């Protein structure tokens, strides 16, 4: 596998000349879960389509966020919960501790909304990061993180994992806050970002709907879907 170089050397094309791992190398990474669900694949295809309108795009991001949330929460811990049905007592199950979800603004907002359809009681924390187009490094502009009391796990959600800079910064921040169990969810990931995230956070499970081929010279995922924030919020 080629070493991952730091982007940012060329102000116009920061990824130009930067070696990128292949898709097969990324797919072999430990702790990476790539969805095989046909409904997710079909919705993702509509999402990518350039003819999909911003309103449809936002709806799809929410739906995909909910579907990925189901996949990524399938092994959460539960404990016995004694209740009474209208007919008789029984012992059901409830989640052990709370679940946090941290959308990376802006594009993560739709995914977090979907996540809340799956788990309405999730704590939602917000982190505003925007990529500097010249260096491709994330710049933080907003940070609203709650106390991590009694959280079983916190999910970072963002549709696009490109260079990995935003995802790594978000996970670093949660780790520094003492959140012990973290997971990362994206719709589309580039091999470059997956390798970088795996190196920075070797034990964080990563859930994605698809792994694409490469980053272009400006750091966009190809074939990708374009700019996830702009398409979601109609600011193209
Ligand atoms: C996009 C995307 C990720 C980031 C991914 O956000 O939503 O947060 O880029 O890139 P990276 O893996 O190279 O860090 P963007 O900066 O376009 O902001 P937006 O969500 O406000 O559109
Ligand atoms: N952010 C996006 O919205 N799309 C990409 O392809 C890369 C980063």
Task: Kindly describe this structure.
The chain is of the alpha/beta class and 236 residues long. It has helices at 23-27, 38-48, 54-72, 108-118, 165-176, 191-200, 228-233, and strands spanning 32-34, 78-84, 89-95, 98-105, 123-124, 126-131, 138-144, 151-157, 160-161, 182-189, 206-211, 214-215, 221-222. Strands 1, 4, 5, 6, 7, 8, 9, 10 and 11 form a 9-stranded mixed beta sheet that branches. A two-stranded antiparallel sheet has the order 2-3. The chain has a two-stranded antiparallel ribbon with strand order 12-13. A hairpin with a 6-residue loop joins β6 and β7 (138-144). α2 (38-48) packs antiparallel against α3 and α3 (54-72) packs across α4. The protein is globular. The two termini are 36 Å apart. Uracil binds next to α7. 1-O-pyrophosphono-5-O-phosphono-alpha-D-ribofuranose binds at residues 104, 106-107, 129-131, 136, 138, 158-167, 193, 219, 227-230.
């Amino acid at each position: 596998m080629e070493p991952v170089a730091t982007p940012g050397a060329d102000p116009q094309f920061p990824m130009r000349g930067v070696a990128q791992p292949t898709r097969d190398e990324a797919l072999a990474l430990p702790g990476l879960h790539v969805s095989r669900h046909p409904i997710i694949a079909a919705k993702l295809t509509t999402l990518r389509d350039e003819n999909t309108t911003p309103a449809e795009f936002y709806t799809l991001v929410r739906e995909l966020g909910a579907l990925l949330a189901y996949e990524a929460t399938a092994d959460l811990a539960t404990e016995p919960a004694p209740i009474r049905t209208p007919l008789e007592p029984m012992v059901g199950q409830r989640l052990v501790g709370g679940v946090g979800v941290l959308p990376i603004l802006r594009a993560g907002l739709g995914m977090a909304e979907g996540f809340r359809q799956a788990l309405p009681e999730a704590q939602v924390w917000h982190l505003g990061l925007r990529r500097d187009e010249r260096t491709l490094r994330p710049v933080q502009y907003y940070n609203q993180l709650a106390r991590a009391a009694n959280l079983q796990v916190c999910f970072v959600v963002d549709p696009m994992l490109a260079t990995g800079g935003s995802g790594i910064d978000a996970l670093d921040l949660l780790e520094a806050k003492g959140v012990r169990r973290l997971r990362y969810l994206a719709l589309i990931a580039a091999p470059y970002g997956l390798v970088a995230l795996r190196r920075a956070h070797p034990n964080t499970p990563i859930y994605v709907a698809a792994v694409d081929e490469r980053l272009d010279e400006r750091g966009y995922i190809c074939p990708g879907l374009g700019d996830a924030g702009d398409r979601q919020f109609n600011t193209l």
